[in-house]
């Protein structure tokens, strides 16, 4: 079985005072190598200090986006080598808030993911449908299109995927186990067709209002290899409760 990955996305939340949460999460993780992997994707301003405080623990630190270029005249952007140097091991790419709020297309997402891999980071590539797309029956077509474009030029063992239905992000609405199982199975099939056997072990995370109350139901679903967690990752107790729900599946 794939080791599960429990990843937090702090979005634009977190000041130095919140490094206490990083310390509490790091201190609450299991030491065993069979335990789930744990990751916090913090704002770029906190990355170096969060990585310093997590160093020597099982907690990994990541960024939330990166530019596709290594350096240059891109005011306000952060490159993958910068994140790496600051202590990141992962970076989220193609989060729906970047796709919709910053016009990031599948092509841009793929270029960012390739830049991340070239810098020694693991990109977590997000895909997901809107409510309109779901209600009109277009979910799998939309996911297929996003996967085709966003994985361009990537090797199967170099990235993680996250299925995040847009209507479930930050809304408290969670996809049903049947909806999650259907899309994750579809993504697995896509990966196997595209990459062959190595496609069987690419991690596929679920994201969308995952919390301590629903983690034990969602994380055991077939082809769910962990979670990408927004709101509930801001509180150490909630993040650790989700992590423990994943850990309970590995023993
Ligand atoms: C996210 O932003 O990736 C996310 C899943 O957020 P939330 O858990 O708050 O729905």
Low-confidence stretches: none
User: Numbering strands along the chain, what is their spatial order in the largest sheet?
Assistant: 1-2-3-4-5-6-7-8
Count of discrete structural domains: 1
CATH architectural designation: Alpha-Beta Barrel
For CATH, the homologous superfamily is named as: Aldolase class I
Using only C-alpha atoms, the radius of gyration works out to 17 Å
Overall 3D shape:
globular
Q: Indicate the percent of residues in helices.
A: 40-55%
Q: If helices are DSSP runs of H or I spanning 4 or more residues, what is the number of helices?
A: 10
Number of strands: 8
Q: And the CATH topology? A: TIM Barrel
Brief descriptors of the model:
10 helices; 251 residues; alpha/beta; binds phosphoenolpyruvate; TIM Barrel; 8 strands
SSE layout:
Layout: E1 5-9, H1 19-28, E2 37-41, H2 44-54, E3 59-63, H3 80-86, E4 90-93, H4 96-101, H5 106-118, E5 122-127, H6 131-135, H7 139-150, E6 160-163, H8 177-195, E7 204-207, H9 215-218, E8 226-229, H10 236-250
Parallel strand pairs: 1-2, 1-8, 2-3, 3-4, 4-5, 5-6, 6-7, 7-8
Bound molecules: phosphoenolpyruvate.
Residues 9, 164, 169-170, 207-210, 228-232 line the site of phosphoenolpyruvate.
């Amino acid at each position: 079985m794939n080791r599960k990955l429990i990843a937090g996305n702090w979005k634009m939340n977190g000041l130095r005072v919140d490094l206490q949460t990083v310390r509490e999460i790091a201190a609450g993780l299991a030491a065993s190598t069979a335990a789930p992997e744990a990751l916090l994707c913090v704002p770029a301003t906190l990355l170096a200090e969060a990585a310093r405080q997590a160093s020597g623990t099982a907690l990994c630190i990541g960024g939330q986006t990166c530019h596709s270029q290594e350096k240059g005249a891109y005011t306000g952007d952060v490159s993958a080598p910068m994140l790496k140097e600051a202590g990141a091991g992962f970076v989220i790419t193609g989060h729906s808030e970047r796709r919709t709020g910053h016009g990031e297309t599948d092509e841009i997402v793929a270029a960012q993911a390739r830049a991340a891999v070239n810098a020694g980071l693991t990109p977590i590539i997000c895909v997901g449908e809107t409510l309109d797309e779901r209600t009109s029956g277009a979910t799998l077509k939309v996911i297929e299109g996003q996967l085709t474009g966003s994985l361009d030029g990537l090797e199967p063992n170099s990235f993680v995927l996250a299925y995040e239905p847009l209507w479930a992000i930050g809304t408290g609405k969670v996809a049903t186990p049947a909806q999650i199982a259907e899309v994750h199975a579809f993504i697995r099939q896509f990966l196997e067709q595209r990459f062959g056997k190595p496609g069987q072990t690419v991690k596929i995370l679920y994201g969308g209002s995952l919390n301590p109350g629903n983690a034990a139901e969602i994380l055991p679903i077939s082809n769910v290899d962990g979670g990408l967690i927004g709101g509930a990752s801001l509180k150490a107790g909630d993040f650790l409760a989700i992590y423990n729900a994943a850990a309970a599946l590995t023993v």
